[in-house]
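Q: C-alpha coordinates for this one, please.
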Amino acid sequence: MREYELVLIIHPDLEETAFKEIVERITGWIKNDGGEIIKTNIWGRRQLAYPIRKLNEGQYVLLHVKMNAQFGKTIERDLRYMESILRYMLIAK
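A: Here is the predicted structure, written as C-alpha coordinates:
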Protein backbone atom coordinates (compact mmCIF):
# COMPACT_ATOMS: atom_id res chain seq x y z
CA MET A 1 0.00 0.00 0.00
CA ARG A 2 1.10 3.53 -0.74
CA GLU A 3 0.58 6.73 1.18
CA TYR A 4 -1.56 9.46 -0.34
CA GLU A 5 -2.87 12.89 0.52
CA LEU A 6 -6.45 13.59 -0.52
CA VAL A 7 -7.59 17.22 -0.47
CA LEU A 8 -11.30 17.93 -0.83
CA ILE A 9 -13.17 21.19 -1.33
CA ILE A 10 -16.77 20.64 -0.27
CA HIS A 11 -19.77 22.91 -0.91
CA PRO A 12 -19.83 25.69 1.73
CA ASP A 13 -23.61 25.72 2.27
CA LEU A 14 -23.83 22.17 3.65
CA GLU A 15 -24.87 21.73 7.25
CA GLU A 16 -22.37 20.24 9.67
CA THR A 17 -24.11 16.85 9.71
CA ALA A 18 -24.15 16.58 5.91
CA PHE A 19 -20.50 17.67 5.80
CA LYS A 20 -19.52 14.96 8.31
CA GLU A 21 -21.53 12.35 6.39
CA ILE A 22 -19.58 13.11 3.20
CA VAL A 23 -16.23 12.80 5.00
CA GLU A 24 -17.38 9.56 6.67
CA ARG A 25 -18.60 8.16 3.34
CA ILE A 26 -15.23 8.80 1.69
CA THR A 27 -13.27 7.34 4.61
CA GLY A 28 -15.65 4.36 4.55
CA TRP A 29 -14.82 3.73 0.88
CA ILE A 30 -11.12 3.72 1.70
CA LYS A 31 -11.53 1.40 4.72
CA ASN A 32 -13.80 -1.01 2.80
CA ASP A 33 -11.09 -1.45 0.16
CA GLY A 34 -8.55 -2.34 2.86
CA GLY A 35 -7.03 1.13 3.18
CA GLU A 36 -6.17 3.02 6.33
CA ILE A 37 -6.90 6.60 7.41
CA ILE A 38 -3.75 7.97 9.03
CA LYS A 39 -4.92 11.50 9.78
CA THR A 40 -7.88 13.78 9.03
CA ASN A 41 -7.47 17.55 9.06
CA ILE A 42 -10.58 19.68 8.68
CA TRP A 43 -9.43 23.12 7.63
CA GLY A 44 -12.89 24.66 7.63
CA ARG A 45 -14.25 27.41 5.40
CA ARG A 46 -11.74 29.21 3.25
CA GLN A 47 -11.83 31.69 0.41
CA LEU A 48 -11.29 30.14 -3.03
CA ALA A 49 -8.65 31.54 -5.35
CA TYR A 50 -11.24 31.78 -8.13
CA PRO A 51 -15.00 31.15 -8.27
CA ILE A 52 -16.10 27.53 -8.76
CA ARG A 53 -19.77 27.07 -9.76
CA LYS A 54 -20.33 30.74 -8.81
CA LEU A 55 -19.11 30.07 -5.24
CA ASN A 56 -16.32 32.03 -3.57
CA GLU A 57 -15.85 29.82 -0.48
CA GLY A 58 -15.42 26.14 0.23
CA GLN A 59 -14.94 23.76 3.16
CA TYR A 60 -11.51 22.14 2.99
CA VAL A 61 -10.55 18.66 4.23
CA LEU A 62 -7.12 16.99 4.09
CA LEU A 63 -6.91 13.21 4.47
CA HIS A 64 -3.63 11.30 4.90
CA VAL A 65 -4.38 7.75 3.78
CA LYS A 66 -2.75 4.43 2.90
CA MET A 67 -4.47 2.55 0.09
CA ASN A 68 -3.88 0.35 -2.92
CA ALA A 69 -2.70 2.13 -6.05
CA GLN A 70 -5.53 0.63 -8.14
CA PHE A 71 -8.12 2.08 -5.76
CA GLY A 72 -6.93 5.62 -6.60
CA LYS A 73 -8.69 5.50 -9.97
CA THR A 74 -11.87 4.19 -8.38
CA ILE A 75 -12.04 6.86 -5.68
CA GLU A 76 -11.34 9.63 -8.21
CA ARG A 77 -14.22 8.37 -10.36
CA ASP A 78 -16.55 8.30 -7.35
CA LEU A 79 -15.51 11.78 -6.19
CA ARG A 80 -16.08 13.21 -9.67
CA TYR A 81 -19.78 12.27 -9.51
CA MET A 82 -20.48 13.70 -6.04
CA GLU A 83 -22.19 17.05 -6.56
CA SER A 84 -21.29 18.41 -3.13
CA ILE A 85 -17.53 18.13 -3.86
CA LEU A 86 -16.32 21.16 -5.79
CA ARG A 87 -12.72 19.97 -6.31
CA TYR A 88 -10.45 17.17 -5.16
CA MET A 89 -6.77 16.33 -5.51
CA LEU A 90 -5.15 12.96 -4.83
CA ILE A 91 -1.36 13.08 -4.43
CA ALA A 92 1.03 10.18 -3.85
CA LYS A 93 3.57 10.92 -1.11
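A few notes: The mean pLDDT is 93. The chain has one domain: 2-92.
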